[in-house]
Amino acid sequence: MPKKLAILSLFLVAALMLAACAAAPPAAEAPAEEAPMEEAPADMSGKVVIASGGMIRIGGSFALTGPIPDPGLNIRHGAELAIDDLNAMGGLEGFMFELVAEDGACDGTQGTNVGNKFAADETIVAVTGGTCSGETFGLMPILQEARIPFVSPSATNPDITSADCDVCNRVALSDALQGATDAAFIVSDLGITSIAVVHDNSDYGKGLAEIFQSNVMDLGGEVSSFEGVQVGDTDFRAMLAKVGADGPQVIFFGGYSTEAGLIAQQMTETPGLEETAFMSVDGAYTQQYLEAAGGAAEGTYISFVAGADSEEMNADFDAKYMEKYGVSPDELGPFHSQSYDSVKLIAAAIAAVASVDDSGNLVIDREELISAIRSVDAFEGLTGTIKCDGMGECGAGGVQIFQVMDGSFNQVSGFGME
Amino acid sequence: MTSSPVKAQAAGRDGRASLKQFTRALGAAIVVLVIWRVTTVGLAEGYPASFWISQALNGLVLGGVYALVALGYTLVYGILFMINFAHGEVMMIGGITGFFALQFAQARGWMEGPWPVVVVALLLIMFIGMAASVLIGVTLERLAYRPLRQAPRLVPLISAIGASLFLQYSVLLIFGVSPHSYRKPALISGGLRLGDVFIPYTGAIIFITSILLMLALYFIIQRTKLGRAMRAVAEDRSTASLMGVDVNAVIVVTFMLGSALAGAAGVMLGFHNTVVKFNSGFIPGLKAFTAAVLGGIGNIPGAMFGALILGLIEAIGPSALGIPTEYKDVIAFTMLVLILIFRPTGLFGEVLSEKKA
Fold first, then answer.
1. Measured between CA atoms, how close is A209 to chain B, in angstroms?
2. What is the ipTM of this complex?
3. Does the predicted TM-score (pTM) go above 0.90?
4. Are strands B191-194 and A301-306 parallel, antiparallel or unpaired?
5. For chain A, how many structural domains are there in total?
6. CB A223 within 8 A of CB A210
7. Which of A23, A395, B46, B132 is least surrounded, with the fewest CB atoms within 10 Å of its CB?
8. Is the pLDDT assigned to residue A1 strictly greater than 60?
9. Which residues of B touch A294 (CB under 8 A)?
10. Which B positions 209-268 lie with beta carbon below 8 A of chain A?
């Protein structure tokens, strides 16, 4: 009897593990299907028709749970403020905008669920999101199939945009740029050549760590170890002891706030790593990082893919944010301005293609909308003047590098400082 | 049926014998493979002795936490023959409550006071965490398990998984999805440095406290009247009840003891790893369950040693086998599978009463 129960329990454990590992997103396959671009159908199936008095519904996939809930909420707030502003200016031809927010949980499986929900809802015109790269990889193939264009404010993995996906766009900058800038900063500016690379096995963190690693090698730096952890781990001591045995001068971590903070903190307790510098990336450019790292955050480096902020527009945005949510937008995390721009950009593209038919319905052709987003040129957003290219890269700005001093981020290098 | 039943039985015996031989050969092959891998890859890396000592200490701290949680699994299994899969959440509740108790203490400046004040405050925080866990553990028993005591064994198991999810998402709703960061008081920040080995104070406290708590538990079970009643119920519930043992009370006390240990583990892990959130009991819970099976579920010393062994393997394994540390969980759960195949009763064997055997 005990044996039976033990085996039964084993199956249960396996099932639970599977449930837990569902967080591991499916491989980032670029959607293979070729979109039927030519010959728009004569019927209304390729069009969204909104009856008079209806709403223009924009879906939103935000990481409200998962490893970075605070930035997820912040990004949702950014999108909500954009919708408020659009409607305050009278909407579009008398039609108001509406945000349909879903929790993408920063996770591929949940991204797929959200994608399916949007694809099944014929009133969804376009989507803003997802927040994380893994989540966006889940959304991507489904929205491509459903011909719903999306603009992600914060998914930075280079493979989010590709020649195979005509609905995929983002206003964040690709990690190809961030990885290269970080590597140049460490190897050329700091003159450090012995580097340990750690990632959290997320599409975002691991992807960025790999880009960073190859850039370091190109610059003549040496990667002493390349180690992975899991999103949600809290005890990194065994991993750090192993990394510390090689005595690297810096640890670079590709991942999110909490894990980054805990690694920075536990490094100070690891023989061989007391003097080692620590650098992490935009996923850790948050208050949560400072809180999780505590005193160990001092002197650590964080890079961020920043927009070319126009101060006047941002001051207005910050005031509205403060008024509506009672916190400063920087309190919860980065990317709120990208999120605001993402929604405004979608709205601008919709305005370019929408028309009112004889019976007073607003008609939006899906294929026209997909190409309209790519034709956005000189759109004035919070993150600068946005221009989308043929691949869906709409990001403006550059990579900034910050150092933590007296408990706050101080820019030490990068975009806006030259 | 052409062959006679006798023949079929003989064939079955042969089949069993050859299966046994096969598993033995497989076991030997795995052991040889591991030894070969350790000697050719792990040791060839040339890590200094201080490295292995550091890793072993990391493993003992981890093992101490697993042991406290594993005891809860094993105690409940010993008495009810059910796996309380919500036990990891009981630990998490202890950690979350400890966080708020710590905030309360910090707001009043107790954590900056002279050291006796800090020590008393820390003990109080741990006690509050344990009390919260006990409350949840006893409530679970009353609401989720007691009504199902006469049901088939699978039913309370499913109820336990439901309770686990219920607790996780209740905490998510009430306390939010963001992690809560423990701020260590200066007294227990940092650690001891012995040459190239660093022992964080929190790690040392976890190990020593877990040993003390386990000794206390062992004393309760072996030397008190209550412990005798627990052993009697584990041996044979109905006979124990005929002898005047209040079975319900014993079961409640068992849940209280297990939950108190888990609560203590939750608070100490909070101080050690400094982050707790709604799902931070899930993986440690599974690990502790693995540890309990490793030592022989239902066997109290087995759970303690199983947990320490699991902690050590998790910390040392990846370096010794020369594989990335991200596979530490794979090593732990592979151990579970291997133990279930080769020694289903665990390394130390389940202590079987006649009724169970």
1. 15
2. 0.86
3. no
4. unpaired
5. 2
6. no
7. B46
8. no
9. 181, 183-184, 274
10. none
